[in-house]
Structures are given as structure tokens and as C-alpha cells.
Amino acid sequence: MINQNDISKETMWEATITCDSAYDGLFFYAVKTTGIFCRPSCKSKVPNSENVSFFGDAANAQKAGYRPCKRCRPDLKSKTYDPFGSIIEDTMQIIEKNYEQKMSFDEIATKVGVSRFHLNRLFKDRTGYTPLMYLEKIRINKAKDLLLSTTLNSTEIGYQIGYQSISSFYNAFKRHTGLTPSQFQANYVEKASY
User: Fold this and answer.
1) Which residue has the higher pLDDT, 133 or 25?
2) What does the pLDDT average to over 151-178?
3) Cα–Cα–Cα angle for 120, 84, 3, rounded to 5 degrees
4) Per the residue annotation, which of 38, 42, 69, 72 is the catalytic one?
5) Is residue 44 a contact partner of residue 71, using CB atoms and an 8 Å limit?
6) Which parts of the chain are coiled coil (predicted)?
7) 38 is annotated as an active-site residue
8) Could you say which architecture CATH assigns to the domain 85-192?
9) Domain 4-68 has CATH 3.40.50.450
10) Taking the CB of residue 105, how many other CB atoms lie within 10 A of it?
11) How many CB atoms lie within 10 A of CB 169?
């Protein structure tokens, strides 16, 4: 296993200025002028090299009087830290637990504590969906379950899963399945009878 003593100062400096996550957990860097220490992958402003010290672990950086960075959280025991993972997870949980309610994108962003622009970009980068696309996906999956497991009609299902208009529900359902709700139901019944 590589430790900090096996890595040259030049390599550590290069990893620091390029925010190379491959070195996370192998060393930490501290900045004398701020009194803060970080992981190599931290996206904070690049410090002047003469103000930087390197440490093999977080405990030694703290013993030397440095505080952990609030952005990259080098004090956490995990090798890497994803500050946005909890935002994605929280957004998904909010949508999954409240899909049947009328929800605005602003409300979701406020609940997870970021701007709507930041949430939209971050969520799309990580999941391939915008939060509203994800909401629609959850609703349509629930509609498919209800179509196959209840005697509710399409209109009742559309309202139950949170659509304010039936045409919005039908359009979303067709976008996701290529079928209308009744065609989807008929296809399933036809396949089940074979």
C-alpha cells in the first residue's frame, strides 16, 4: 500500500493543483495562511505552493493546528467524500415519498438546500434525469402498477399519482411507454392470457 512517504512533494503538489481524487486518502494538504487542511481532490482555490504542507493523515494535520475543510471534509473516515451525494439522495427521497402531491421544482430545491439551477444540473449529471423527469418516471411507474393491480380507471389513476390534468397524464404515460394507459392495460391482459 502506498503511503505519503512514498509520494514525492512534486507529485503531491501536482495532485493538489489538479484536484486529483486518485490521491484522496493517501495524503492531505494544509494551507498555512488559512489554517485549513484538505483532500487532494478539493475544489477550493489553488494555494501558493510556499504556504502548503503535506500530511499522511488527517490526525497529524489536526495535531499541527489545522482545521478540516468544510467543502471536502477530510476529517471523515471515508477515503473519498462526495458532498453532492446526499443532495441527490435527499432529492430522490423527497420525490419518491411525495410523488402524488403537487410539487414545484423550487420547493424541492429549497428542501435540499441548493438553488434550482444547481440542483437541476447536478441531478442530471448524476442520474441522467432532471428532478422533474425523475418525478414523471416515478409517477408513470406507479401508474403502471395501479393499472395492473387495481380496478381504478385511467382518470382516477392520473389524479391519484399527482397529475393536475388528465391530458398531462396521458401525454407523460405515452412518452414513457409508447402506449396510452388503456393500451398498456390491454397489452398486459393479452400477454397474461397466453
Assistant:
1) 133
2) 94
3) 145
4) 38
5) yes
6) none
7) yes
8) Orthogonal Bundle (1.10)
9) no
10) 14
11) 24
